[in-house]
Amino acid sequence: MTTTDTLTIAGIDYRSRLIIGSGKYKDFAENLAALEASAAQIVTVAIRRVNLGQNRDEPNLLDVISPKKYTILPNTAGCYNATDAVRTCRMARELLDGHKLVKLEVLGDQKTLYPNVTETLAAAEILVKDGFDVMVYTSDDPLIAQRLEEIGCVAVMPLGAPIGSGLGIRNPYNIRMILENAKVPIIVDAGVGTASDASIAMELGCDGVLMNTAIAEARQPVLMASAMKKAVEAGREAFLAGRMPRRLYASASSPIDGTFF
User: Fold this and answer.
1) Selected catalytic residue, list 103, 111, 129, 229
2) Catalytic: 68?
3) Model pTM?
4) Tens digit of pLDDT for each residue in 32-48?
5) pLDDT at residue 261 above 70?
6) How far apart are CA 79 and CA 10, in angstroms?
7) How many helices and strands in the chain, by DSSP H and E?
8) Whose CB has fewer CB within 10 Å in the chain, the N or C terminal residue?
9) CA 214 to CA 225: how far, in whole Å?
């Protein structure tokens, strides 16, 4: 993989195609250790759950993970309607001194954490008009993905499987259909459970993978973060290399023409 093969989001180039979260770790120190092992340059933060300075009496994540070194990606986890999601993004912009890059997610219910597409579309339109650079979590519906791109989202993030499920990429065909028409980065968000899942997403041609639970709930989170780094890189290289065609029958590794018997 060449040094020019970068992930570009909102005009910024990133060497790493892995984005990790900041929830479910035992403490900020473990989160930082996993972040370093993953080599990720973007870390997403749930504004409603993690202190970025809004609670002055609590530990501040930014004291451990520096915005000068990493891109902080505030997200709207825990929002179930467009109004709350927009309000959360505006609060993040204030807390981060005008920071425009956000991850929009509007959930349908607490059991499935499946995206509420109607509210997501409404929130995306408001945020884009308000000057935000919106990365958006959505279903794996190709038509919805296209509509979000048309609205002006800078990255579309279809789920691989429900959030925190670890089920892997359940519908690769829909992901491929999304990729066929996309002109913005397509980043699989949610459902990754282990390194092979991340590789599959990248082998499909996705521009990146976002994960949290797969690392944070591993028996050894820092080691899993290292594994995910390698998996994303390997999957990307395999996609760029182009896999061999699938065949129904065997094909000899060495040709028989010109043999001595």
Assistant:
1) 103
2) no
3) 0.91
4) 999 999 999 999 998 88
5) no
6) 24
7) 8, 10
8) C
9) 9
